[in-house]
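Hey all, sorry for the wall of text incoming. These are the two entities for the joint prediction.
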Amino acid sequence: MSAVIERRAEGPTLRQRLAARGLDGATLLVLPCVALILGLFIYPFLYGLVLSFEPKDGSLFGNYVRFFSEPFLYGTIVKTLRLAFPVTLLNLLIAIPIAFRVRLLRRQRLLTTLLVLPITLGTVLVAEGMLFYFGPQGWFNRALMAVGLLSTPVSVLNGYWGVFISLVLTGFPFTFLLTLSYVTGIDPSLENAAATLGAGPAARFREIFLPLLVPGLAITFCLSFVQAYSVLPSAVLVGDPANATRVISIAAYQAAFEEYDYSMASAIAMIMGAVQLLVVVAALGCRSLFYRGPAAGAKG
Amino acid sequence: MQKSVMSRLWVFAVWAVIGLFLVNLMGLIASVVTSSVATRWLGTWLPAGFTTRWYFAAWDEFQLDDVLWVTFQAVGAVVVLSGLLGVPAAYALARREFPAKRAVMLLLLLPLLVPPITYGIPLATVLYKAGLGGTLTGVILANLVPTVPFVVLVMIPFIEQIDPRTEAAARVFGANIFQMFVHVLVPMLMPGVLAALLLVLVRTIGMFELTFLVSGPGSQTLVVALYYAVFASGVRAVQSIDAMAVLYMATTLVWLIIALRFVNPTQIVGRGKRSVT
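and here's what came out:
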């Protein structure tokens, strides 16, 4: 009993002082989750980074020198970007007008549900279906020939356009749903106010929506870009994995699981991460050139 | 409001693009389904006849009973573990202000921002070094990396909606933190937990890259088995690959339809960002 009184006299206990700073039993619940990410994400990443500087030939930068001296390897960066950039931009450009149209609909659920389909089916299934649907005897070519738009079947498979189409099919829904959630987040009274003041549709878009949307669009661009950037299944299945669509993830995969050179594979993965990071930073940097502020009306 | 010709044309163009996209998407899915029940389909609009034997052929050829069992185990473990790890962490992040909170949030965002194939290769290397590569445990561990942060980010807004006085009342009446979780928080959070876990389920069934990099012969999930079947096609009848694709589609669709009863579709891609209404 006297011990308790003595402690009180000293002031708050360690436990109480920690609790005052927000550290108590409940806070500890975050630890298992943090441990998991540290162990399975941060540690492998650092391990890979260290491993990439320990190439087979013993020099420090051997892998990186090799990557940037062999056209077969450094060319993959250009090939990846040449696919990922146009696909992401095209998806974003189609998604914006459609999101503005769908925003006005009462029943969005059916359409959005249909659009979620390709996301959950994934790239493997879409690629599998494309082999059939876009094939020389597939329904796509048949229909176009039946209405007289084509005289001979057009071949999109096993090349750049096959991967392009598969990325649009799987990537567009993702871009669209993100864009839609940003577009619906803008207070409609802002548009009404502009319309009352005599702004036409084009002016309303340019003066009201675009500035408010830019931050969201930058994030949408980044997330869609990340999706398009790591094409592996479609580049192999409907592309030309030895040549035109030899993207960087194929190079990394081959180094790891065909040459069993984990050091080189880690180096390629690090380069891949760095390139992606550069694009994301650039996209978010552009964002800061535009208006930042609330997208809701000033008063309730 | 009077509409000009230009704006009518614009509306028409927008709908045409939506239509074109949906027609091609549906055509693609329908051609897989049609092919899977076709006897012989060469150079015609529709196959010569219909049969279900490819499903039996695919079931035997690809050992789908094994693959489905592996998929079930892997997905089940990932869903349960990400719930057990993610929900308590989300609680701590939603309710407490502590010094390293911003760092923890950033740490949880990273696995969602980096493409799986980028961190999958170093992760697979580490797992192979640890002797877990090619095993079911390895597949489960790898899949937890994106799902746990996903659960945390989806759950934080749900927990913030609950009045903190409810928990305070439970604590006043002598419940410890575990009892409070089981008897107070989990029942109230059930809709949110279900939504988050169903999304984890759908994402894990479809997660190709990580499983592909980590799995071995005995630990392939359905989507990886499908990839290998398409990759090495030519040996097998196209129809049996299509039959497998339809089975894969069916497993995802069932769960997706259940998931959509609980969540708004934008949440699947919004990555926990609360959709603003």
